């Protein structure tokens, strides 16, 4: 789209921190954890110090033999150094391929095989406890961010390597490979270029620009997700102090925010859900937040209401963006205390003028409506250029400049896009499982998760999780489901037992499979 193309020179991840440090050299980067690659750096650095660390790590990768155009898979224990290693890899013209720490060893091997003999940056813990021995045969060389192994080279052993000049690759060259959520099977490897990433910057940058530069921006986003590589540049280039959270534990977060109150928070929907308990925390960790922002998945109206309630700022806003790893943000809307998410909670907003487009394609020749939703298709210059090793799968979702999202919905006469379900999650007789889940959350405060999946007979089966794993109040449940479509009796699970993606989305198909297996064995 034309506004995404004006002045688009590519995101230039390799020199990102250099450019930010040139503008705001003393601005802080605050962490809630130590970096495996540089624990001596501590949990508070200036942008100048982070830029130096990225340069240092780039020199070590170069000393290990990594050269422009080659691929470097990063799959290590969770931490912000995953993101920094990606920037360091890009700094020498190589292509970082980021794999979530949550992926199992077999899936990692399959994805590394697809990348075709890359360098692999991992750590001793992953090699000792998670990755099969065959990983050494799939990688050109294994490098360790921490620990040691007889068949691997430690990055620590390469400390002090001569610094190398940054390598600038063309803006249409691959600059980063991330993977999809894997909610429907083995993740796909999404190939981004410098230009496609920069195209995603503008829709999201407008939100951060509303917050004063002196106010910190807190980010709790998967370090391997494409969203990190737009949220982070926006924050540091605009001059905001940056808080990076690895842990979403409310107690940890409350203490971090007490010491450095953020003006804007970017996080996963399920993270905000977990932070509902902070509303009544006497430290008031969310009191200074002017903007809450979430891009990854549908967010429940109850959570939006509680986040806004926790803020003591004048007219706080909750910004919800609709998008996907493959295309970036597509549509957005805001909620306020006066107009909360309980008003049209399934509405995910409107496309960004001059930047993104949305259409809903009929499945049966009739106009898409709530009871007869269509396929949601979008267009944006932020779209990936291929799935690595699976270009045919990419072509199946691409229709010229349009991209099939895999979601079902409709648009109102005012142009608002309503998201009802994923195509693969549709249940016969149910207009929207997401809408029912929103209703149940609103009616039962004790719920911390509810997922509706089909049982072995195709009936909607609610899987519920409660705060502190307390037994579900069946009387409250019976009252809550009054007026809703008929469903099977609820099944209660512990939240940690639900299969999750890197961005804490629930793998619904996997959950349905586990439930079926559990009932078969019973």
Structure description:
The protein is 29% helix and 23% strand. The chain has 522 residues and is of the alpha/beta class. The strands form 4 sheets. Strands 1, 2, 10, 11, 12, 13, 14, 15, 16, 17, 18, 20, 21 and 22 form a 14-stranded mixed β-sheet that branches. α3 packs across α4 and α8 crosses α9. The model has no long low-confidence stretch (mean pLDDT 92). Pfam families: AMP-binding (PF00501). This is Class I adenylate-forming enzyme family protein.
- Shape assignment: globular
- Cα separation of the termini: 54 Å
Unreliable segments of 5+ consecutive residues: none
Number of strands: 25
| Averaged pLDDT | 92
**Range of helix content:** 25-40%
Gyration radius, rounded: 23 Å
Main β-sheet description: 14 strands, mixed
SS class: alpha/beta
The amount of beta strand, in percent, is: 15-25%
Number of helices: 16
Protein name: Class I adenylate-forming enzyme family protein
InterPro entries: AMP-binding_CS (IPR020845), AMP-dep_synth/lig_dom (IPR000873), ANL_N_sf (IPR042099), ATP-dep_AMP-bd_enzyme (IPR050237)
